[in-house]
Queue: 3 jobs
Job 1
Amino acid sequence: MGDKLKKIGTIISGSLLSGLEAKLAEDVNVEGISVGRLIVVDGKNNKFFCLLKDVSLEATNEDILLSPPNDDFAKLVHAGVNTFYKLSIQPMLITAQDPTEDDRPRPSTTVPPHFSPVCEATEEDVSLIFGSPGIINPEIGSPIFMDVPVCLNLERFCKRSNAIFGKSGSGKSVLARMVLGYLVKSDMAINLIFDMHGEYGWSATSESTGIDDPSLKQLLGGKIAIFTVDSDSPLYRRIRPDYDVQIPYSAIEIADLELAASELGLTQAGIETMYRLADKWKEDKWLARFLDMDTDELSAAVEELKVNDQALGKLHRCLARLKRLPFIRKEVADDTVERIMNEIQAGRHIVFQFGRYNSMLAYILVANILTRRLHRLYVDKTDSARADGIEGPKPLIVTIEEAHKFLDPQVARQTTFGTIAREMRKYNMVLLLIDQRPSGIDDEILSQVGTRIVGELGDERDINAVLTGLPNQGTLKVLINNLEPRQFLLTGFALPMPVVIDAKDYGQFCQEISPGSGVIIDEIERRKAMDDLTVKVFGDDEIIFD
Amino acid sequence: MAERIGEVIQVYTTRFLAQSDNLSAPPHFGSFVKVESQSIPVYGIVYNVYEASIDPNRRAMAYGIEREALFKHQPQIAEFLKVEFEAAVIGFNDAGHIRTYLPPFPPRIHSFVYPCDRQEVLDLTEDLEFIRSVNVLPGLPVEELVAASIRLIYAERGNDRAFLIRAGQEIAQLLKDEYEKARSIIRRISDGR
């Protein structure tokens, strides 16, 4: 720590809207200045916290560009006079020069005066902005080129739907695991995680080392309940899942099948036929009955329903794929949603795993069916709690991977996930979207996302989608373009200003989060304090009994 | 005080003309001189040195003999020649403080001219204002003059490279609209030339 304000430039022009421009000091090497850095501008009465968004080469005179200086001496003397470097910086927050206790940084509404010194942010500045680490304010990384914690305000994080975006290999799963781990630890909200790829259960294979890293269940033990549709999977040879899940045909609605239309190969005509079937044979019975039919019964049905026999045959073949999912049964022993509700009320967090059935079809069906029923339950409970003036059900964060499958513009208006994202926290239920293809998500949903954690993204369309509804898009776009693996841009509701971080080391996270180590350290600290007290009271003379 | 090198014979606010005492040792182009006049030393930088006949109506003639030999055999010829030099005023000494701007009045005719000592050169050139002063005077060979004097100061300062860079930057700054001019001076002062 300490006040090592290093002046790197001087403000020369700019505006609040388009950002400030500074001339780089002559003694600073431009190659050491990289975009995404946190910058502090020392105004007269205020400090301005800014983001470095661009560095450019400038010349005062065209002639020097036409006949450039050719020896080192000439380059040296022209530097800073005829040629200079311009820093483009975006003011974000402002705070008084000597902030008092309740003087929190607030959004910048003005600019610093001409020739204000531009400095790199110090550790004190960073902790002033992002607070110091704690259980509801956990450290999830440090600003690039700095070794100071950046903390995520979980209290605010839980109040909106959030998203973690990044292409595969960007480290988003590891970061998501950390965020979820801290959420579980803090108990700010209950998590329901649809774990398509089996990364949030007992362990997850690290991409870089190939070794199994401990995951949530291993780290947090009793706080996590694992539900699975594939209890026979080799995954569970060592660690048994807490619950085995089966879904009855009666729970599947046509809307669920519509969502999985492309996975099932359904056409529009097929969907219409399903509605006819449901009308005729009751909404919760038709599917089981239809799938049981043989060829003769099907032709009879063609007569009865007056539908095209080929269309019905195709629909039958398409839906027959459901039979290959052993967890979808005619009869089930008990109701999964009820169990989940009980676990939630008991304060346990739920990881929903798919084992070997990690096809898109199984994932979409299960996630959608369960979430829809949970949402209905939550709406009822919240409304009745409100009517009775008591506390509603515990806030729930539903984490979904491959979020674009549920929130693509064509289906987002009808699916439960779309509804949850739009109604925000009204019914104590929000989403955490994890996706590598944000451009596939409906704009309206994206603009509702509170906190965005963005890793490396390749596609221009994805980058544009991620920025939907954000201010200073130009700046943020530059930052996203420059991200490396394990670097993330954090922006939105849970953070006072956008920041690019190097994600925290996973090993460090594991040490911090696992109850074992923490308990032992706490115990050691406690005993040490007791010993000190004993010495203070009784002195440290050895007592000899004879 | 060092030995005198000349006597002022014509003055303007911004420059003066002096006649050299010694035909064989004229002051160097770009060197710093001072005139003691009315107890205010006025500093100048030599920008033009020339040798001519003392009679404006009679030009010197070619004899076809080496200069040394000619003066030995016909010493009267030397009596008909003079060396004069012009200097641009770049500052003065105000009760012990060196000011790098024009004095309130020029030195008087018949004042003596002396070379500046090392300390005076250092003090006079510390802020590099003299470059600006000579740059604005019309009719001066600015590029050559500035380069010559900086080379001289550089040697006087014991080849202080930091000074050379500072001087180069001052030139680049002053002549930022005349890049070619700045470039030619910088080329002339850069190391190894």
Note: The first strand of chain A starts at residue 7 and ends at 15.
Job 2
Amino acid sequence: MTAKNVVEIRGRGIVPGRVEGEALVSHETISGWGGIDPAAGTIIERRHELFGVCFTGKVLVFPGAKGSSGWSGFFQATRLLGTAPLAMVFTTLSTKSALGAVVTRVPTVTDLDEDPLILVRTGDLVTVDADRGIVTVRPVSP
Amino acid sequence: MRLADDEKAMRDGAEGPAVAAAMNLLVRYGEALGAEHLCDTRNVAGTMTQPSPVKERLVREGGWPKAFSVINLDSDAEFEIPHMRVPTCQLQHGFSDDALGVAPYPASMVDLQADAESFYGAHGVNILATCTPYQVGNLPVRGEHCAWMESSAVVYANSVLGARTNCEGTASTGAASLTGKIPCWGNHLAENRHGTHLIEAEVPVEGFLDWGMFGYFVGDLVQENRPVVTGSLAQPDLTDLKHFGAATASSGGVELFHLPGITPEASTVEQAFGGPPPHRLVYGARERRETYELLNSQGSSSDVDFVLLGCPHASIDQVARAARALEGRTLTAELWIMTPRALRTVADRNGYTEIIHRAGGRVLTDSCPAMSKSAPEGTRVFATDSAKQAHYLPAILGIEAWFGTLEECVDAAVTGTWRGELR
């Protein structure tokens, strides 16, 4: 890991806080109701690229929310059941994703100046500084 | 986000701690959206009574006040809950006692929900218990700011009624019910209500099946955008547009569409776009066939053991048509038709329920197999006239699906065999 590989993406923090952790990247939008199991913290949509994968404790990087208006309630349940992601970084802001991030209460950054779905890979070490609206990406391999 | 004086007072506790917590959530949410201010609403449709494992635990620990504080206000503290400040209704929830012995669903959940109904009913929540509140006593008027959940109801309220609501969630509707406020963002603003895509039907769109397929095509095409649909469209009725909107919100995330000359905010195509229309996209015979095949791509066995009608919840007209189709028949497969409890009462008075029961079918209320994750024991293959239920139920219950007309569904329930085809 060298400093020159470090990428900084600037956006808008919508839930405050600063954390550092491993990225889990979904290129597909995520459903709440019918899409995740809050008890296990996993993606359960059968045709989803992350089917069966656990997001607990990960920096979840994804395009945005889709599906039912139950989205925020399902992500709130991950907080109440101890399976929430560590942070969220998403590109498309909607009422579902905004409220979902707020009630999950994890540091969240959106409205980004570069596309995190291109710049971040699963396993990268990511710092989400939602107080300043900065996402710092340290690739695991060159 | 700017707060008005009454909003600052609520935030600072003038109306008590539960209202202050509600305003705290609305401020966090509104600022996350980038909303400039809140707007007044006197029409909230949310969910408080639906059982879940988390809710069951919270009720055990601190009763319904704790469940409402934690889930519907997103608070860590637990408050006494005041009467709803503005008219608020409960959307669809879990199965009720009418499903006991019919749907495999825990009796403890039915009891928990009945207990919730007593609590919330006493606090001013109207227990409409349906995904179609606009059918049974909550019919917003044009321009009315609402705070609604349930994607099929949101798209109906915005598009068919010209009301203004975003697709809200459990906590934002809970907070709105105690404050009469919701972030003024998205669909609440006139500049966000013009069409983005023009889709022209070159094949006739007439009847429940075709409106559902057209909606499924349109939603898949435009995703979260705002379609304007024209072409060879027959005059739709409530059930057609209920099906069309629900389908657009299943294959995509449509919250607002315009049907020039029919829906209230667009007399013409130009008015729908607020200017010149974009390049036209076509729904022709090939697209219709592909949509039908997509909806029927989740079935391989033609041995149908369950038929589901009434998604979104059936109108009284749909219940009447189902009764006529079932009169004098004997079913081999299970058949459920979902409808709001208020319309079930009408169906009982008219004798429709008895006709359906005599054939071996069931008229159920409050919920649906997707919401309650419950179909008849041993179901492997189901048939439905609903594009939305065909979209969701295979994933939720791991079963195969067939999509067709009411008559084809009834035929499958009688014979146990799917014989549907696109005509």
Note: The longest helix of chain B spans residues 53-72.
Job 3
Amino acid sequence: MNPTTDTTNRPSVSVAGVGAQSTGARTSEAADPVMKLSGVSVFYGAYEAVRDTSMPIQEKQITAMIGPSGCGKSTILRSLNRMNDLIPGARVSGSVTYHGQDLYAKDVDPIEVRRRIGMVFQKPNPFPKSIYDNVAYGPRVTGMQVSSMDDLVEKALRDAALWDEVKDKLKTSGLALSGGQQQRLCIARTIAVRPEIILMDEPCSALDPIATAKIEDLMSELANDYTIVIVTHNMQQAARVSHYTAFFTAEVDEQQERHGRLVEFSQTGKLFTNPVDKRTEDYITGRFG
Amino acid sequence: MSTSTSNAGSAAGSALRRGRRRPVDSTVKVLLVAAALVSVATTVGIVIALVQPTIGFFQQVSIVEFITGTSWTPTFAQKAYGVLPLVAATLTVTGVALAIAVPLGLGSAIYLSEYANPRTRKVLKPIIELLAGVPTVVYGFVALFALNPLLQKWWPTDNGPAFQNLLIAGIAMGIMIVPTIASISEDSMAAVPRSLREGAYALASTKMQVSTRVVVPAAMSGIVAAVVLGISRAVGETMIVTIAGGLTSDRIVLNPLEGAATMTAFIANISSGDIPVGSLDYDSVFAVGALLFLITFALNAVSIRMVRRFREVYE
């Protein structure tokens, strides 16, 4: 391993983390973050995949998580709506709060968490059902009281900028759509249950540039009503769409194990133009990763 | 490193030439084709063997009588050749078997695929599949001498199940086909991509909702195939119904608490007695056999169509 990586690694992390947080707080002054991570570590069995992550998620803002592969950004994202619960042996320490409430407290129902904090995945994963049923799925399983399911489906599809393309074929399978349309269907499906926060795990990585542009536009549109957290390996994307950016990297410890680590968190503009940490600078200028 | 590269380089020229035949390859091919042909030939052979006596049968008995007659008494003095009693008994037993096997099999499959942790699944699945290896004669005897006495004892009313009856045969047969339905359904549920489950969980589904609303529909083609295969096995099953199902065939028995001969039970019974080759009784066995063959053939065709219809493409 490169010795310089080792020496630059450890000391600056916590400093950068804390420093960055205060920068973020200063910019949005009084606004209480809707979610807050404090000292969050995620373990798979005995393996600590991500260490000691602290950052806020600001309301109705887009927060991006960037960093090289294996830096734990997706792992952290999945800890925000307890999707990690589905992986046997996964465990979260530290605290993740949502409106001040600890998401991992004993009496918290993960189903209720996921109703408020939805998720869109890397690969579009519509159900093998009709477009209509894909969107209606969430409201149905959560027992939402709706006066008209048709209206709700239409609204969700309109909000996901898909309505005009599918309004004449709501009964056809969601799988018959193109990749970009499928991903917008998945977004429509997610917003149909009226969550407060939408987590997006590399939502454009399986899409072509045109479809990607559409999703990015949509994200900016959705940020008027929703808090969005997006994981992306595409720095330009983070720079284009997000208000806040968290840069993660992987560091190698004495046992040669890789651990994900938050290096820097700040307003997107600041992080990309004036990063505090050398590793952030190296990454965004393309010297690394 | 470098030596192996240069070796490969110099050997490449000769290796590419077509000179070296591989006799093993062509021999293996011939053997494999032969192996495949044996089953094709067997099927053709069965059809031919069935057709000739069946034609002989229908030269003496009209098809209309065969299909619509409500009494089947080839061994009686007063002979009648209406196949409906046999068909009715077969349907009754199959119906009972499915009523047992579909819920149990699907339930086991959902449990194994969605609820059981990997270690439990690893132990349980082979045990369930082991049930499929129990000889059917054992099921027959267990049904007749263990299950039926219990059923008779616990029956709430006076006119309980007979010594041999369709209900107990159906129950035993249902237990017999549980592993078939469970195993194939579980395979098909396990093949449902993880991403679909995650999508459903992310929409605030409970485990039960993920199982019944996403996984089961997505695995429907496999589940339908499993059930149709179960039906095929039930229709063709012989030993259990011969031992525990009864032999009445002179009238249509609709009460499952009575015994009645299914198509297969009739064939097994009459074939074990001595009937003269070429006689009408002998031919009647083949006529019933041909009908059985047609039914299972149709079931398989339906199964293939259903599987195509329900097949979902995930990507």
Note: The beta strands of chain A are 35-44, 47-57, 62-66, 90-98, 101-102, 117-120, 197-201, 227-231, 244-252, 258-267.
